[in-house]
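fold-stage: in
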Amino acid sequence: MIKSVKNNCEHEIIVNKSRFIGIVVHLQSIEDVSSYLEFYKNKYPEANHYCYAYIFDGAMKASDDGEPAKTAGMPILNVIQKQELNHVLAIVVRYFGGIKLGAGGLVRAYSQATSQTLLNADLVVYELKPLYKISFDYTFTKLIDHYIKTMAILVINKEYDEAVTYTCFVDDPHFFEFIQETTSNQYKKQYLRDEYVEKEVTHE
């Protein structure tokens, strides 16, 4: 189970005439980091710094991008760590306003830009669940559909051919016990893979 951001979000703050644009994005893979950085560098081409941090499972990185060491990337990383986020990239774009903030001021500004951006973001919990294909005779459709609805099982695809085939996320073994009993074991089950599924959204 992981907590991440659901959608990309931006929020801007001004600190002593410097603009700090906080950005948080959900990462599908670490390879996405470079493309997101390129995108926001093109979106804000005149900025002085593009500082960032990401966490993706066991991997993490923080970049100061020309700011004094540990005054930008690490504060950004600390914020997303405290929120216990994963599969997330946080970027803070800075337009220098002519007034130096000092090390402490930079740490506060980058932390604040990240924190306030997260306050405006939708946070979501993703749960790793196994995905299956299940095939059965048409005559069992009504009973199985009723059970699926009652147990809130997520079905992402339905096919009606010689048999009915549902592609669904199932982490409750009782479901297969029900299918087996209902169909007198006349069904087919195929495990496909594990995927992250949205569990709940929290607004913080």
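fold-stage: in (second)
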Amino acid sequence: MQQTNNLYHVSEEAGAKLFALRPPASYLEAITGDVVFAISDKLLLNYLLPRNCQPVTFYAGEQTTQADRCRFIGPSKATLVITPF
């Protein structure tokens, strides 16, 4: 996947035209005001599954060993795998 600098807003509502500010998740203590989150190209695939289907995502990179590729990806030439948890 070619990486760009695009940002995306993802919604479960088809045709959403307005993304309302909301309080951040409680584990994001450094963010004190209401926010709209944006997702980068690299993480967008994680948000294309339904919210109740939490994915596990892993990527094969330049430093991935052949043993790890075989273990996690198998014989495929894919560079990423997304599977429901």
